[in-house]
Amino acid sequence: MDNLIWKAKPSQIINLKTFFFVLLMFLIVLFGLKILTLYIIRPTLKEFHLKSYVNDIVFYFEVIYYSFLFIVLLIPILQVIFTNYELTDERLMVSSGILVRVREELELYRVKDYRVIEPLYLRLFGLSNIELITSDRTTHIVYLKAISNGHKLADMIRDNVEKMRVSRGVREIDSDRYTG
User: Fold this and answer.
1) Fewest Cβ atoms nearer than 10 Å: which of 58, 75, 138, 168?
2) Are strands 127-134 and 91-96 parallel, antiparallel or unpaired?
3) What pTM, to 2 d.p., does this model score?
4) How far is CA 55 from CA 31, 74, 83, in A?
């Protein structure tokens, strides 16, 4: 029977680039349209008596554009919300997906190596990514993104990998040979 050791979700900090991009695009269009409308479009259309249509066109463009930005922002947020990581004493399970839910299970004795990756923007928030290199046929590399206490989790994974290898009598054999 699997005993749950650790359960978490990735942090929304991994969407920081998307947040800044959407904010920048929002501000560019917000101020750009106002300047364009006030100083270029209205004076030009004043001569053609089409001034009343400008407000409608700008309004509909803003509604469509901001709806698009909202969707661009919403999708990565939902991807993080619907991602779950669970570590038991025998397996690591990663569940993800917004419309189609996928649950990948990795037997811990299949983990060959791991890396804790700490980019600067994650380190500022005390987060890290963990990359597991496995001998699993379907998933050779498993990523755990934006995890707090990454080093502690990596140690827990390593300890349980060793326990599972001993209990199952599994030994790792590298078949890669260096031919120089």
Assistant:
1) 138
2) unpaired
3) 0.81
4) 15, 28, 42
